[in-house]
Structure formats: C-alpha cells, structure tokens
Specification:
Blueprint: E1 2-7, H1 13-23, E2 27-32, E3 44-46, H2 49-62, E4 65-68, H3 81-86
Parallel strand pairs: 1-2, 1-4, 2-3
C-alpha cells in the first residue's frame, strides 16, 4: 500500500508514522510545507505549497491512502478531496 501523509509536520508525527508503515512493508512518505527550526527530515519530502499544488495530480494518482494532518490538503479550499474520493482512494 502507498500511503501519503501531508502536508504539515509538527513534532515529528508524520515522519514517525511513515517510518513505522515502512517497517511494516508499506511505501509511506510525508510531504511537509511547514519548516521549523527542528529540521525534521526522516521519511519526509520537505517542499512548499506551490510545489505540492504543481504535483498534486501525480500525488493523487500514485498514492492509495491519504492522511492529512492539521486540517490541510493538497490544494487550498480542499478542492482535491473530491478527486481523491472519485478515484476510490481513502
């Protein structure tokens, strides 16, 4: 299973969950736009909102399961959620 976590990393939560999912045999990656002084990197792709929006179609097509943290999504206004749902993704 391919699991997306995004897009805000606080307290290492996305990285920890992705690490455990990987340990259990899944492909899991966190995409982070919130860059703090703590510099989280484990199991993350540190990026920005523009890059997330530009690659959102690829992300939606690639991943099977989406876990959004802190009331976020790939596109402002949650416009991506209907597309994710229409493709039968969780």
């Amino acid at each position: 299973m391919k699991v997306f976590h995004g897009i805000i990393e606080i307290a290492g939560q996305m990285g920890i969950m992705c690490g455990e999912l990987k340990r259990r045999g899944h492909l899991a990656t966190g995409y982070n736009i919130f860059h703090s002084y703590l510099g989280y990197r484990d199991n993350l792709i540190n990026t920005n909102l523009d890059e997330i929006k530009n690659t959102s179609k690829h992300i939606i097509n690639f991943f099977d399961v989406f876990h959004f943290h802190y009331a976020s999504s790939l596109i402002p206004g949650y416009k991506d959620l209907e597309l994710i749902k229409s493709k039968g993704k969780k």
